[in-house]
Fold this protein.
Amino acid sequence: MKIRVAVDVGGTFTDVVKLVPETGELRFEKVLTTPEEPTRGVLNAFESADAAPEDVSIFNHGTTLGLNSLLTRTGARTAIISTRGFRDVYLLGRTDRRTMYDIKYKKPVALVQRYDTFEVTERSYFDGTIGQALDETDARTVGNEIARRGYQSVAIAFLHSYVNPAHELRMGEILREIAPEIEVSLSHELSREYREYERTSTAVLDAYIKPKIRSYLRDLDGQLINRGFTGRFLMTRSGGGAMTAAAARDQPVNLILSGPAGGVIGAAAFSRMIDRPNLITVDMGGTSLDASLVLDHEPVLYQGAEFEHLPINTPSLNIQTIGAGGGSIAMIDDGGALQVGPQSAGANPGPAAYGRGGTAPTFTDAALVLGYLGTDTPLGGTLTLIAADAEQALEPLAKTLGLSTRSLARGIIRISTTKIMGAVRAITVELGLDPKDFALLAFGGGGGLVAVDVARELGIPTVIIPPGQGAFSALGMLMADVQHDFGRTFVTPLDGVDHQVITDLFDEMATDASATLQREGFDPSSQHVVCTIDVRYTGQEHSVTVRSPSQIGVSFGGEVREQFEELHARQYGHIMTDPIEITTLRLAAIGTVDKPSLPKVEARGGGPLPRPGSRPVYVTSDQGETYALFAREDLKRGDTLTGPAVITEHTATTVMHAGEILEIGAYGEMVITIGLAERGSAL
């Protein structure tokens, strides 16, 4: 019996989901992440889920390895080769300054220094014509110098190569002849769009993490094959969807934000299953929290992500990430105030409550002291929390602040909740959206602990906790189709646009897309494409992405204009009479894979609810209140509970206060209605 497995490697825990398609059986597990040997953590996840590699037909994987390499500056020693005269494009970047009033502000340390930048004689113009041929003698001189200095990776980014990549391709060939051991990233293979700095930055980020990612994926693939794996190995992409492991090895920049993407993909698929088109998603893990949106059953995409203000010129999901996870450390900041995160206890040693040597007070320790978490339900079935260690970790900080340990714990939870509210506002209120128009889908190991408090504060009427919430991001990976994104810059006025040029560019991308998917094993019946167009008012910096009309003919301009004005009004609150221009044509090529069908849970059939236990929860005072204690596995479809209550499960815990009403949905989702009379934080 073939099975499907998804593994999501986070900063603290590695989540795994095993699905048996024939029976609909789902199994969720958690193991500790092994940052010193990431392959071992993935193999441990397979063992924890009793998933033999020889039985796996599709393996979906998401990892933060590339992101962590950037955060810790432990990537490859990287060089840049640019067009002569444009050596400093990357280091100069953009001249805008976002931090306006901090006199101590310093730009993040660049991934390369000027010593690491090189230039060769060549020049192409904006229309693709060659102004000066590539000087191959010059190119070989640069290649030999790069080899002599011992660089591990090289980013090649020539002027206007997005139109004519011939010189980049030849420079790559020369470099591989001279030093075949060096990894090479060509900017046009990652982005066929204008803006030299953004394209160069994308190539540098790709080159910087490529050796480590390639080594990891080769090692993991090899070890799985040695254990009998013969299925399809897919990686989750930053822009949604999946890519084959082979494609990920060639373009690892698409994996930088792959960790949080699985949860958003799963949320979009789940929104269709439960008929909830508009969701705010909150994914609280051990190290960070990710907030995102699902609008009309689709995740929100934007063109170009960033890492520490370094642009990544590829489509990405709109995910707001903050340092507010279960392992976030509480401390006193320079102003003498209590702060939580972004520093994290990570997987090793982890929060003090894990009993693995951690001593710093964390969110998890505070949740245990308050009774949100307990010692009666081991995390992931194996990790039993230690209350005495959690209290001991909080005591020194509590004494410094003149508080009881429980008062400090309430402060830690409150500060974390406030930070999460800020992340939610950034993707809703700041974009002109009202949180009250959404339901809050909370998942991750800590999502259920904070969801109700966040919803009360923001006036969100409904909280939904999906099945397997602690490993929901891994479950979401099973919902992902393989996807490749293509783009072509084509700046031209919308009025009077040459329809044949647009048709030809889309046809060119479609041909490339079909060939790529064919190589990856997708026949034409499993392929489809989505064409979109970036449009803006002439002279604007930012564009709006609209669907391309199915017929590119007489009505083309009117259809594009109508969509643009509707979306511009939604995103920016107004429309203008200025001329409109096209900037970029885009094509998403999708290879469809079989989606899992989540099993529906059985109804209770009129029998009584399971008899609850109880737990003291110190949510408002040190005296505590009695909360009913339920095991989620004992609840059936249609069951209704009223707060206050704590619902434990294998991978996570959910807390609901007085005034909330919980009902179990068709797929086992917990739908919590926030009581109008009780609205306002319980903390």
The mean pLDDT is 89. Residues 196-226 form the longest helix (31 residues). DSSP finds 16 helices and 33 strands in the chain.
